[in-house]
Specification:
The chain has 69 residues and is of the alpha+beta class. It has one domain. The protein contains two helices and two strands; from the N terminus they run ααββ. α1 packs across α2. Keywords: Membrane, Transmembrane, Transmembrane helix.
Length: 69
């Protein structure tokens, strides 16, 4: 069932690209840009994680800071 869905999705994508090449290119570039920006944001948040041990409390507190902090 999943294979059929993937095949139908692929066929629909091919038809869309052949029928609307400029729009398909615009959509592909937009999606790639969104993914690139999201990866940069996630990387910056991951790099700026700070773990704080609270004395007397058996819990670690993780503080996430963004690039603008």
């Amino acid at each position: 069932m999943a294979t059929q869905a993937a095949l139908l999705t692929s066929m629909a994508a091919v038809v869309a690209v052949v029928t609307y090449p400029v729009a398909s290119l615009a959509v592909a570039v937009t999606v790639a840009a969104i993914v690139a920006v999201a990866r940069v944001v996630v990387t910056r948040v991951d790099r700026s994680m700070l773990t704080v041990d609270v004395p007397g409390v058996p819990v670690e507190v993780t503080v996430a800071r963004t690039a603008r902090d």
